[in-house]
Structures are given as C-alpha cells and as structure tokens.
Write a structure and sequence with these properties.
Blueprint: E1 6-10, H1 27-38, E2 43-45, H2 74-79, H3 85-90, H4 100-117, H5 127-141, H6 152-155, H7 159-168, H8 170-196, E3 200-205, H9 214-218, E4 234-237, E5 247-252, H10 256-261, H11 265-277, E6 280-283, E7 291-295, E8 306-309, H12 313-322, E9 327-330, H13 338-347, E10 351-354, E11 376-379, H14 388-393, H15 397-407, H16 412-421, E12 426-430, H17 431-434, H18 464-476
Parallel strand pairs: 1-2, 1-12, 2-3, 3-6, 6-9, 10-11, 11-12
Antiparallel strand pairs: 4-5, 4-7, 7-8
Helix pairs in contact: 5-8, 12-13, 15-16
Length: 493
Amino acid sequence: MNSARQAGVVMPVFSLPSPHGIGTFGAAAHKFAEFLAEAGQSVWQMLPLGPTGFGDSPYQSFSSFAGNPYFIDLDLLADEGLLLPSEIAKADAAGEYIDYEHLYRSRLPLLRLAWERSEPDGEPLTEEVLDYAMFMALKQCFDMRPWYEWPEDIRRREPEAMEHYSCELSREIDFQCFLQRQFQKQYSALRQHCRKLGLRLMGDLPMYVAPDSADVWASPEQFQLDEQFRPLAVAGVPPDYFSETGQLWGNPLYRWDEMEKDGFAWWKKRIAASAELFDLIRIDHFRALEAYWSVPPDAETAAGGQWHSGPGAAFADMLTASFPDTEFIAEDLGLITPPVHELRRRAGLPGMAVLSFAFDPGCESSYLPHNIEQNCVCYTGTHDNETLAALISAMPERQLEFLSAYCGGARPRDVIRAGMASPAALFIAQMQDWLELGAEARVNTPGSKDGSWRWRLPPGLLTHKLAAEMRGMTTTFFRRPNAGSEEEIIYVD
C-alpha cells in the first residue's frame, strides 16, 4: 500500500450519468474523473468491467478477460462516423434506473450497425478474449443457452467442431472482436485522462467466475466439474450479517490442487489481464484463499455447506513473486479467522475496515476509526452495503446515540470525517455517501435477485461546491492527492 495518506471514491461505471441509459467510457466518465481531481481524490474505485450475465451482476461475468460492451460510448462511435445521432436517439432509454432488458434489445443492434460501417481492424487480441468472442458467437447460435447445454462436440471443444463453428460463425466472431477493440480503445483513453489528472483506478478481481462463462468453457479442467461439466459443488458463504441462511452464489469451485501444479498459470493470466486495466486490484472474497465454503450443487441455501482448505501460502507466495509491482487489497470481510489474517500478512496486503459495521454500542469494534491500522483501506461502505443515510435513518436509538457521540454528529458527513481522520493509508467513500443519498441509491442487496446493479447518479449533483468541500476535508486530514500533470482541471458542473 502506498504509504502516503490518500482518499478516493467508489463509483461503478454503469452508474455514471451518461446519456443513453447506462454509464459509459464517454464524456460523463471523463467529467467524473475531472470532478474527483478537483475534489482532491486520488483513487476511483470501479466494480468489475466484464460483460455481465445472469442477474446483470458484474460478479457473474461471461468472461474474466473481456470487457462489457454496454460501456462502449455511442457518442464516441458517432464521432468516428459509425453512428448517426438520430439512430442513437431512437434507442434511448428514459428512467432513473438502468433498464437492462431495453439495453439488450436496443444497444446491440446499434453496436452491430457501427461494426458494419467500420474498417477491418487487425489490432491483436489475447487468446482468452478470442475464446470469449467465439463463446458469445456460439451463445447467439444456440439461442443464448448455457454452454453446458450445447452439442457435445463443441461443448468439449473438439478440434473439428472448433474449426467448423469458427468458419460458420466468422462474422459474429468478428463482431464480438470489434466490440472488444472498441472497449479497449475507449477505456484506454479514459485511463490516460485519469493518469494526467493524477487519478489511480482501482478494480475488483472477483474470486469466482460464472458457470456459464468462456472461462469455464475454455478451461474446464481448472474447476470441480463432473463428466457432463456440471459443478460437483458450488460457492457461497455461510450464514452471516447479510443472510440467516448464508449466500448461495452458485459459482463452480476451483481444483486448487491442479492449479498449484503449474504454479497457478491460469490465475497469473487472469491477474495480469486485470493489471492491464487497473492501478490497484481488490481481491474479492480473499478469505476463500485460506478456506472456502463448499455447497452441494442441488442445495437450496448455503447453510448446509462445509469449509475446505484453499491454496493458502502457495498462492500468497505466487502473488508476491509474480506481481511485485502490482498493488493489491484484500477484501477480508465476513467470517474472518486468525489464519486468514496470517495469510493476508504473509502476502503483505492491506485489508479493509467498513464503517457501516463499526457502530455497535455493545462492543469496541475493530472497524471503529481509532482501531484501524495504517496498512488498511477504510470504507464508509461497499457496493453491498446500504448508503450511510439509509443506515443512519434506520438505526436503533442506542446505536444512533453512540454513532453521534463518537463522530460528533449523526450525518453521513460526520461518519466520513471520522473515517478521514483514521490512521488508514487509504480512505474510500461511496459517492452516494458524499451526496447523502438514501436507500434509492443502493447498488446491491446481497441475496436479492431484483433491483441491484441499476442505480444511476442523477445529473447535476457533482458541483464545484461539493468538490471544494471534499477537497477541504481531504486536505484537513493530510490525505494528499497524487501528483498529476500541470494541465488545468476543466471540470464543468
């Protein structure tokens, strides 16, 4: 962890106030980066950027290596002459929240039209991205059914079948490659802009991958699957703060013993791909590297699972040896045991402290600001938490009194100030908490299948007044921004 005291913001790309129904890498993203620079922030934390599958969750992606086509900005395509403004306007979606069904029906035809008007592009793509392009072409061919329901020859990637479908679906594969090149080009421009502003980008590395993904189709030997490629067990977590029956995620589990034999080669490629996108990488569900919760594949809840040993020290040593210049953060929330802390320290990674969990009047929580260590990232809350305003409004009286006494007030700003003052090297707030937004602005409710991943930032809230307030508090607690270029910040609210 960078030893300088710094601050940042959690803001999903899909939540940006871009036009046309969902946040993208276009003007709104560049303006948001400029706002953060003016506000004295050093880190913009995004959620995973992969193509979403079931439930629209960025943690259930069709690929660990590909990018989400929804983040391709349509206006930038129009600037290239690939779309007309009138064509884009016909596909617009109105509403406060993301309408994924509308996006699915309207966005892909526009992107396909842009591809048909584009010049052939030979920019090389990685083997894993090419696997994803073919995977998506095959899904289109087989009515979007999961890959383990495809004909057996292509399920098993038999050479003759691979050659046959590569030829038959060549145009669809080319279209998918076009999307990935556009994603890479637009994201690269955004990242370069952020670098000029002295802003570092943080992303998540989900611990697990989706069962219906190019990752599992292309490398089934890495996962605990039966002969028909069905999971022998699935991932989840036991009963906890979020759910009395635990959380049943349904992701296939890894064959850690086999992965260790080749030095975790698959993971090295996956981490390297993430490091191409981000300056800091948060390893989601880090505790599974010490021990993971294994649930029978036919279970209705996660309550009946069992703990199994993870790769432990071998994986931690691989991180240290293979990625000495990459900055990682361990998401060590939930049921954390001493061996998990020991593994995190062995890897030299900072953990996390979440203020939303801190204010229990009956105990001295390790998440209270005065108890947070320096090698740590202090959060107001993560994408899985309520906003501070919603949390505070529902607090029992004793808890509210304790929070108010500790923070010197009971507004979200008071909690942010307490986190800013903590010893943690990096403090991160949800953008919703700076704006003091309520339950309507929650990003995800774990265990719920409806309403998550849809929040959009209303336009007009990112003002110069707010930026000045954020910069003032950030500098008061000696959280200095990274050194950017000498270019003038041109953010316009």
